[in-house]
Input
Amino acid sequence: MIRLHKLSKRYPDTGGSALSNLNMEIPSGAMGFVIGHSGAGKSSLLKLLAGIEKPSGGEINVAGFDLTQITHRELPDFRRQIGVVFQENRLLFDRSVAENVGLPLEVCHVRSADIESRVRAALEKVGLGQHFDAMPQQLSGGEQQRVSIARAVVNRPSLIIADEPTGNLDRKLAQDIMRLFWDFNRLGTTVLVATHDVDMVAEMEMPILELQDGQIVHNQFSEAVVL
Amino acid sequence: MSGTSPLGDPASGLELQNFAERQGRVLITTAKRLMATPLATLLTIAVIAISLALPATFFCSVISLQDVGLSWRGNTVVTVYLEQSMDDAAGAVLTQEMAAREDIRHANHISKEQAAADFAQWTGFEELLSSLDENPLPGAIVIEPAIDLSDVKAAESLAVNLLAIDGVESADMDVQWLERLNAVLRLLNTGIAIVASLLAIAVIITIGNTLRLDVQARREEIAVAQLVGASDNFVQKPFLFTGLLYGFVGGLLAALLTTLAIALLNSPVAALAAEYQSSFRLSGLGVSGFFALLASGTLLGLCGAWLTVRQHILRV
Ligand SMILES: Nc1ncnc2c1ncn2[C@@H]1O[C@H](COP(=O)(O)OP(=O)(O)O)[C@@H](O)[C@H]1O
Ligand SMILES: [Mg+2]
Output
């Protein structure tokens, strides 16, 4: 599902390397965490995986797309294969919950009747079926984050990438969100979650990838692959 | 993948319907968005309409004047003035000779006596003439040429030929008047073309600027749509439709303004024309003019939107 080879990322304005010489492989259907201190390079890695940033060197392969070679025209096709969840949920506050969740379907021209039924199903899955017509600002922070998860899964992506999805939430809500990701993982979706919440990761008993100063210092995925 | 069906699939009719439905939905959303800020929308449309109506009104006026020139061409005549010393009998003979020429269709003799009568009637100086011993007016021959006098070369060579004839004093061609009108109209046409081009650029800039602000205001929406897999096409469409709507409605309003302006101009024009015993009026846009204005507006709107969106969206 994900394959990195000598991947590196430098931002032109800071000069230093955000990521250097990353090699790893994550198999289809896996779920795990990217951990590390603030500034370790977690967001940079996830942005590269989502095709939001371009690598400075090396190879990166995600869901069958070679992201080093991908063209601007091919990018939408790739993005439709993956679901991305951000810390600041990035909902559109001038649209209803249903319109937010339906956006990934709208952009690939699904018929409006199908959009409605699939949005309903996605909202049911995250436990927000009753908020179909609500506006995002009427919901709590945890509910808003669940709406953004519904948006990430509505197009049945093969890979979900989440960057600190529980960063703003309290313990209980964070656990609910993690359980939600786990549910999708059991349905076959590959899930990768970045977090600096080490306690929660410990509870989940799942493989981790630990970054420090832009380098991999601990990779339990490779152990899983070897097994 | 979802939303696509293989060729020949019976669902392709549905695909077409789906496509039409999607365009309709974007158009309605765009129209609603524009109507949500009625004042800003109206101001933009007004600027577009005025920019289009101004050259359209001038253009209609010039076309009307050109029509006058064209209708004049049909009865263009040349008046040949004979030498004062030539008497009416010699004038009549010369008239017959001229009528026989190949480049002249018809020649009509105006005797000295008739010239005096015409003069008296036109000027009212009857006493002046009768107080003179001798009629000072020359005879004349009014010629209808067989050639097209708007062809300047042919007209000039006819004039040379006529002046070479013994007893001809001068030749007065109405065509000179027509030439001058045409020259002035050509000048006006060029002027209007320049003004229209400048205003077209102004329309593009107006729409571009409005949409640039619109793109900035919707930056997050564009970014999120792109993150979930929106193509450039999808992201650009609402803005292109916005430009299209601005241009289309601006064109409609411009047609209204032009019609109004011409109606207002026509009452002083009628008064002026009456002074020259003419029933001349400025003609309106007409059906083709209306559609031309609508098409220019729509095209300019689309053009302004496309240029802006190209520049700003791909950078989001
Ligand atoms: N857009 C950017 N431009 C310049 N430098 C950046 C940018 N994003 C991140 N960085 C730098 O890259 C390094 C890694 O940051 P980041 O990937 O955000 O780490 P994390 O998500 O683990 O906190 C940091 O030193 C940060 O300053
Ligand atoms: Mg981060």
